[in-house]
Amino acid sequence: MSTVNKDLKHFVVHGSSLESPLEHQNDYLTPNDRFFVCNSGSTPTLTIQNYTLRIWGDGVEHEISLSFEDIVALPHKSVPAIIECAGNHRAFFRDVDGHTIETPSGTAELIWSTGAIGMAMWTGVRLADVLALAQVHPSAVQVCAQGSETDSLEGHVRMAMPLSKAMDENTLLAIAMNGEPLPADHGYPVRVLVPGWIGAYSVKWVQDIEVSKSPIWVKRNTTSYVMKGDAWPADEYAPSMGKPLSVQNIKSALALPYPANLETGAHRLHGYARSPGYAIASVEWSCDNGVSWADASLSQDNEPYGWVRFEFDWKAAPGSHHIMTRATDDSGQSQPDNVTFNTAGYLYNAVYPHPIQVR
Description:
The chain has a domain at 251-358: Immunoglobulin-like (Sandwich), CATH 2.60.40. It has 5 helices and 23 strands. It has 359 residues and is mainly β. The chain has helices at 68-72, 91-95, 127-132, 163-166, 219-224, and strands at residues 12-14, 17-19, 52-56, 64-67, 76-84, 117-126, 142-146, 158-162, 172-177, 180-181, 191-193, 208-212, 226-227, 243-244, 251-254, 260-262, 265-274, 280-286, 294-295, 297-298, 308-316, 319-329, 354-358. It has a 5-stranded mixed beta sheet. Strands 5, 6, 9, 10 and 11 form a 5-stranded antiparallel beta sheet that branches.
């Protein structure tokens, strides 16, 4: 993997992936050069001059090939949205709950803490508008995007999603990130953006999209991004080896190192909460192991596919402490006290104790 404009002092390196610790996040949007990176292969070198996008399959009336200019000529739309890896927070399955995380064969250990997430303003064109140019057949059911990298364990990265999600007005072919052309590590010149779903669906460097009248099974929805374990018997999800992942879940996290060290005295602590498709209604915090809870204040930026910054004041006394945070969205859904373990450590969103040592 090659990185572009990355100051590695702001990242934790996991093999070919870069985690952006949440304590570096202060504003609503994550700067492009501090956005986490999770690539399955080397970053390909593409240009807008040689870029083409193929739309094909038995789910469209005719195959088409679009240039970059053809794509950007369509109406533009901007969507504020996070992209979050399905394995973000997986370290807490190990460090809090005591489980052993399986690392896929041939890959580096990737035990994300809270930094496999970033928030950006994405600008591009609706995927629905692009697919319409090929005339989607009424019987089509799935859309599968393919990236341009060639040296990942799966060759070209491919990920299939239901046609309904592909046609959602907020699902984009993104060409810009925070008002700038996509950086190379984030999909230049075109990537898919699937708000609210795990990051694996937001395929980078997309150059091929298949539309199908039948389900499409690929490595990512049969083995890589599936819930495995006793609670998800493979025979119930065949041909997948477990329950395929799609939608993210509600979470909150403090923007502090884990564990953190603070000085004695008053502190204004902050963090970020999100719930896919919903604004956050409240964030509560506790410093007595959940015996009592107090409300944190929320910022005005609180988008359904983004996150919200929360803040509260804490007077730190010397010693060892644990602070817990709990988010509730405007549908009434809250973070659970515990979650069922899956072998890859996906979608951990339990309320967890954040250790803080006060000097």
